Amino acid sequence: MNKKEKSKIIFLSGLITLLIILCIYALNGFAPFGTKTLAVMDANIQYIDFFSYLKDVIAGKNSITYSFGKTLGGSNIAVFSYYLSSPFNLLLLFFSNANLYTFFNIVVALKLTLASIAFAYFITNRFETSYKDNSILFILLSCGYGLCQYSFFQASNIMWLDGMYMLPFMLLQVYYIVQGKKNWNLSIAVGLAIIFNWYMAGISCIFTGIWFLLECCLYAVENKMTFIQFIKTGIRYVFAMILGVMVSAVLFLPTIGALTNGPRGSLSFKDLLDFSFVGNMLSVIPKYSYGAHSDLGFAALFCGGLAIVLALSVFFNKEIKIKIKIVLGVFLFGILLCLYWHPLYLVFSLFKFVGSYNYRYSFLVEFFILFLAAYNCVYAKEKNNIVKTGVVAIVFSILNIVLTRHYTHQEKIYACLTVAMIIVLTALYISSQLMTKQKTKQLLLVGLLIVGSIDLGINSGLLANSLCMNDLEYTSYRKNQEKIIRNVQNDDQSNYRITQTSNRVMYEGNLTANYDEPLSYRYMSTSGYTSSPDGTQLEFLNKCGYPTYADCLTVTNTSMLGIDSLLGVKYVLTSENYTGLVKKNNTKLNGKYTYTNPYYMPLAFTSNNFDAIKNEEGYLNPFDYQNLLFKQLFNTSKDIYKPVKYSVTKKDDSNTEINLNTSNYKNMVYYGFVPWTSESESYIYNGKDVITKYACWLSPTVFHIETNQSNTKLRVESADSNFNYDNAQFYALDLSVLDQCAQTARKNEVNISMKNGSIDTTVKAEDEDSYLYLSVPVDDCWDVLVNNKKAEVKSFGNCLYAIKLHSGTNKITMRYHTKYKTLGIGLTAVAILFIIVSAIYRKKYSKEN
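RESULT FIELD:
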C-alpha cells in the first residue's frame, strides 16, 4: 500500500468520524449546537471544576504542586496527571469558564476522531501488503474504533479517551519490535501515553504484553522463530517498555509519590486468588447491540455491524492457515476472558477494586475485534470465503435474537434493529466483493461505507442521548458563585476558609458530591473529592464528624461550628438557618446567603499546651473527639459539646420519634448522630422539614438541629430497622465556651503569608514551651525551617502542624517540594538522551551499510 493510499485512508477515517459526531451533536442539540453535554456523572461533579482549576494554573493563579483549595490543602500533581494532563486540555485557553461544557463536547469529538485516525494508521502499516479494494473496509473499521461502544459510554470520563487513541500507536510499535524494527518508537509512545493519562496507559501497557505474545506467535507461524530469537525479542520489548516509563518519569514518579500519601495507593494483590467468574462470556453476543450499556458480567462491545461478522469469519477463511486461526482463537478467548474471569478483571483494573464504571478497559477488546476483521479483509478474496461471511452473519444474528429473549422490550427492539443492519451490511459487502464490474463494485463499496457510517451513528447517538444532560443552569450558577466569592475576598483579604451547605449539584435530601468548588473558584475550604486524597486529612475530618466515602471524598454538607471554627472557617454559604452564624448581607445568590462565623479562629496562633497533646485511645464519638482537641489546645477543662438527653418512641414500622431536651437552646447549637448498621433510604425530619437523607451514600453522619423551643421532636423515616438508637449521640455546642476559645486564639493570632506551596511568618515567643498552631495538614514534603534550621514539629490531631518555637524571634519559612521531582527529571533526561543518541547512531550505521 503506497503512502498516498495510506494517507487517504487515515484522512477519511478521521473526517468521517468527526462528521458523524458533529451530526449527532447537531441533530440532538449537543453543544456547541445546543445545550446538551456529555459531561455527566463524575464529569459534572468533578471534572468541570478541575478544568476551571487548570485554566487558573495555566494563567498562573493556582498551582499543580500544592493548592490550599484541595480539602485542607495538598499536592495536586496526582490530580493533574490523572485528570488534566491530556494535550487537548490546552484548548481551554480558547474557552471561558462559562463555556466549559462546550469545551468538553468538542474535546470528546476530537479525541474520538484521533482514535479513528490512530487505528487507520495502525492497520495501514500493520497490513502493508493489503489490496487496494480494502480501502473502504479499512476506513469503516477505523471509524468503528473511534465510534465503538466504549467511546460514548465512557465519554464522561474524558481523560480515559486518551488511552484509546494512544493504544494503536503503541501496538504498532510492538509489531515493529517483533519484526526487528524501530525499537525506541515504542518507548516514545509509552512515555507519551503515561504522561497523557497514566491510568489508561497502565492498562494499555499490560495489554502490550499480550499483544507482544500474539505478534510473536503470528511471526513464528509465518517465519519460524527460535526460542533464542524469542528471548532476544522479548528483551528488546521489555527494555523499550522500561525506557518508555523513564520517558514519563518527570510526571509519573511525582504522581507515585503523591499517591503513596493517600489511602488509595495500595493494591489488592490478594484478590488474585479469587478464581471466580464475574459473568457468562456468552453475554457478549446479545450485548452486541445498539445502545447497550456495559454492566459487570455483561460487557457491551459494539464496534460496527459488519466488524463482528468479518471478525468471526476469520476462523472460516480457507486462505488463512489453521495455525494462525488457532493463535487468533486462543487470544480472542483469552482477551474475552479478561472481561469475565476475576483475576484478569482485577489485573486490567490495575489491581484495584472497581466500584463504578465497569469495563473501563473494554476498548482493548473492541480493538481486537476490529483487528480480526482487518485480518480477514486482507485474505477474504475467494468467492467461497465471502459466501461463508453471509453464513456467519445469519448465525450470529440468530444467536443475538435468541439470547435477548429475557431482555427488556426496548433492548429486544434494538437487538432486532442491530440484526437487520448486520444483514444489510453483510449483503452489501458480499455484493461488492462478488461484483466484477469495477464501477458497480465501487458504488456498492461507497454504499457500504454510507450504511456502515449510519450503523455506527445510530449506536453512538443512542449512547450519547442516554448519557447526557442539559447545562442550562451552569452559566448562571458560575456567574453568581464567582460574584459571591469575589465579594467575600474583596471585603476580607486575610487568611480564612469558606464552606457551603449547598453546591451546584444537589441531590434529594440535601446530599451532594460536588466538593471541588474550592479548586474551581480559588478559595480555602474543608471539602474535596479527588482520586488522590490525603489519608490523614480524611481520617481527621471523619473523626470530627465529617464522614469519608470511597476513600476519596469527605461529606461536608452541613456546618459543625466547633471544628469549623478551629479550622478557620470564617464564612459559610448556606440557605439554611444556623444558630451562631451572622448573616453578612441580604444578598441571595444561587439560593444561598453569606454568613459570618463570629467564633472563627485564625489559621495560625501560638499555644503553650502542646506537651499535653496525645492520640486518643479507643473510640470517641465526633463530639467527644472535638472536646478533646479543644481541651488540649486551649488547656481548658470545659467541654464545648455537652450531651443532650433524649428518648425514642417507635411510632410504626417506618417512623421513629426522637424527643430532645433542648431547654437551654438560647446559647446552644444542637447536633445529632444516629449510628446505622446498614445503608437504607432513610430521612430525618425536624417537624415537617427534612434535615437530610440519611444512612446512605453521601449522607452526613452528624446533622444540624435548628430549634427555638425547650423540647424538640425529630422523626426518622426508614423502612429498615437498621438504626442503633441506644448509642445515638445528641450534643449541644456551648457557644459561650466556644467564644472563650476563639477569643484566646485571636489574642495569640500570628499573621502569616500563605501562598500555594509557601508559608512565611515571624513569631516572637516569650519562652521555650511555645508552639505555633497552624491549620495546615502535616506532609513530609513540607520543608519547615525556624531561623534557617529544621524545625521541631508535632502533629495536632494527627493532621495539623504544631511548630516548636524558641524564646525570642522565630522566622518561620515553609516550602513544599514535590516528591521524586528531581529523580523524575533525571530519568526522563537520560531516557530522551539515550533515544536521541541511538537514533543518530542507527541513522549513521544505516548510511554506512
